[in-house]
């Protein structure tokens, strides 16, 4: 079992920045893919950015050039640096992890990011 806990959400003005963090507890050894998803009101959850255990990254087109995913040496913690935020980035951001070889998924409880001002 893996437990994920996000932190760093909040309210920021357009053009501002936030840094999200995701800590993990439990057996993280099988985790090979870590990332961030978000869900805005009335919309489906969408993938924002991922990073693999080998360091390969993926970004949604909507955040490329503005968001950066990173991690420490171990699978966790992971971070999401969000710059030049706009109101369309307002959502609950979820930390996600996938294990190998089971492909079991783990989710955090989410942290609210609100861009307004």
Mean pLDDT: 95
Distance between the termini: 40 Å
User: What is the helix content?
Assistant: under 10%
Strand content: over 45%
Low-confidence stretches: none
Described by strand count, sense and barrel closure, the largest sheet is:
7 strands, mixed
List the helices and strands in order: EEEEEEEEEEE
Kindly report the oligomeric state of this protein.
Answer: single chain
Count of DSSP strands = 11
| Helical/strand content category | mainly beta
The shape is: globular
In short:
Helix content is 0%, strand content 55%. With 117 residues, the protein is mostly beta strands.
Which features characterize this protein?
117 residues, 0% helix, 4-stranded antiparallel β-sheet, 7-stranded mixed β-sheet, globular, mainly beta
């Amino acid at each position: 079992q893996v437990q994920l806990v996000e932190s760093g959400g909040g309210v920021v003005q357009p053009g501002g920045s936030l840094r999200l963090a995701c800590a993990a507890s439990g057996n993280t050894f099988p985790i090979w893919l870590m990332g961030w998803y978000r869900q805005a009101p009335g919309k489906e959850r969408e993938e924002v950015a991922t990073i693999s255990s080998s360091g390969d990254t993926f970004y949604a087109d909507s955040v490329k050039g503005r968001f950066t995913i990173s991690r420490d040496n171990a699978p966790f913690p992971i971070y999401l640096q969000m710059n030049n935020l706009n109101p369309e980035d307002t959502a609950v951001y979820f930390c996600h992890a996938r294990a190998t070889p089971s492909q079991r998924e783990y989710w955090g409880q989410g942290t609210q990011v609100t861009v307004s001002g």
